[in-house]
Amino acid sequence: MCARWILTLILILASSMIAFAHGSGQHVLGTVTAIDEKSLDVKTTKGGTVSVKLTAQTRFKQKGNAKSVERPAVGDRVVIEALRDNKVLTAIEVHYSAAKNVAASAQTGQ
Fold first, then answer.
1. What integer pLDDT is reported at residue 35 of this predicted model?
2. What angle do CA 24, 26, 31 make, to 5 degrees?
3. What percentage of the chain's residues is helix, strand, coil (to nearest 5)?
4. What is the DSSP string of 13-61?
5. Taking the model in full, what pTM does it have?
6. pLDDT digit string (tens) for 2-28?
7. Confidence band (pLDDT; 50, 70, 90) for 45?
8. How far is CA 55 from the centre of its chain?
9. Which candidate, 93, 97, 71, 73, places its Cα nearest to that of 82?
């Protein structure tokens, strides 16, 4: 009986930590419309435009090239993990697929 309570308590604590860890995290999905050293603008899948701040800690991950450290370019599709602080989104990680790779996949039917 005691082991059941301990197991239940552990499960409750673990699930609350997972929910807390996600915190104020937010995802931005869409296409890059502008990028410079400090920010990235994305046209979202809903048609709006979102500006996301970039920092020295922002990580960039190109699909199919895990070792890439390059930034996405205008026209690339992105999924951005960001934190919101006082209406400012700051990118933690930017996953992207180069526009030329997306077009090639569409032509081959993949």
1. 96
2. 160
3. 30, 40, 30
4. HHHHHHHHHHTTEEEEEEEEEEE-SSEEEEEETTS-EEEEE--TT-EEE
5. 0.69
6. 666 665 656 665 554 444 444 568 999
7. confident
8. 14
9. 93
